[in-house]
């Protein structure tokens, strides 16, 4: 895996983020300057999604699975739901239709929960476009089966918000630990504080940190990161479950 360098093709936002982060004068800045402008939102997944419900469904389905296994299960799920994942189709489908694709009981329940909320307007593209990051994250976290990681990746990978920082991500923390030459891996709380320097382009800082782990052998020390790669095609425009919601 590697970063998507944009170079002379960089958009105005990509170049602004590169120049801003490269001028911070901290340990990340040299890496930013040596890398050049990047696409912070590029995903390298094996399937396409067409809307926020499909994006979240794929993300839930792919937890703790390899890329190929996740893609196979998601493809079967789409087929069982008639070629597309819609709120109506998920809500009216029986458990066998969902679990027959290879979903666990917990994942099937989480996707159904998301679909029920989507049917209430939670994932309406026009509403999402007008909502601030914090409000979207709070609404997603109120849905059983969605945890901080999923909510943050939805903001970053799907909605393309420029100032998202997944402080709990192990790869992000490993990269900061390496850059800052710390004796042990930085904590999520300390990483969150560290990220304040990178506002309002923390999504780009995150992408540069991930890229460092991808391209520097041993830098991640076995760290896990968002690895459910998908080419997202979004439409234009606190209740929690038991178990591990990411």
TrEMBL record:
The highest taxon in the source lineage is Bacteria
**What's this protein's name?**
DNA-3-methyladenine glycosylase II
Annotated spans, Disordered: 225-246
Q: Give residue ranges for domain HhH-GPD.
A: 61-213
**SUPFAM superfamilies in the record:** DNA-glycosylase
Which reaction is recorded as catalysed by this protein? Hydrolysis of alkylated DNA, releasing 3-methyladenine, 3-methylguanine, 7-methylguanine and 7-methyladenine
Which CDD domains does the record cross-reference, listed alphabetically?
ENDO3c
Q: Which UniProt keywords apply?
A: DNA damage, DNA repair
Entry EC number(s): 3.2.2.21
EC class of the enzyme, as a word: hydrolase
Native organism: Amycolatopsis rhabdoformis
């Amino acid at each position: 895996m590697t970063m998507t360098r944009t170079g002379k093709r960089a958009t105005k936002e990509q170049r602004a983020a590169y120049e801003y982060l490269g001028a911070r004068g901290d340990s990340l800045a040299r890496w930013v300057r040596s890398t050049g402008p990047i696409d912070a939102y590029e995903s390298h997944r094996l399937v396409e999604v067409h809307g926020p419900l499909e994006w979240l469904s794929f993300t839930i389905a792919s937890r703790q699975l390899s890329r190929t296994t996740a893609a196979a299960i998601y493809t079967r799920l789409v087929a069982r739901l008639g070629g597309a994942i819609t709120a109506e189709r998920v809500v009216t489908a029986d458990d066998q239709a969902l679990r027959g694709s290879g979903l666990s009981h917990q994942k099937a329940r989480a996707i159904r929960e998301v679909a029920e909320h989507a049917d209430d307007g939670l994932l309406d593209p026009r509403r999402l476009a007008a909502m601030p990051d914090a409000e979207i994250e709070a609404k997603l976290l109120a849905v059983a089966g969605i945890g901080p990681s999923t909510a943050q990746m939805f903001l970053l990978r799907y909605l393309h918000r420029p100032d998202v920082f997944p402080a709990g991500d192990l790869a992000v923390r490993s990269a900061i630990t390496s850059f800052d030459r710390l004796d042990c891996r930085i904590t999520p709380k300390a990483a969150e504080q560290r990220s304040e320097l990178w506002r309002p382009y923390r999504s780009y800082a995150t992408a540069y940190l991930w890229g460092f782990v991808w391209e520097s052998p041993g830098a991640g020390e076995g760290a896990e990161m968002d690895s459910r790669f998908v080419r997202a095609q979004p439409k234009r425009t606190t209740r929690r479950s038991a178990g591990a919601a990411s």
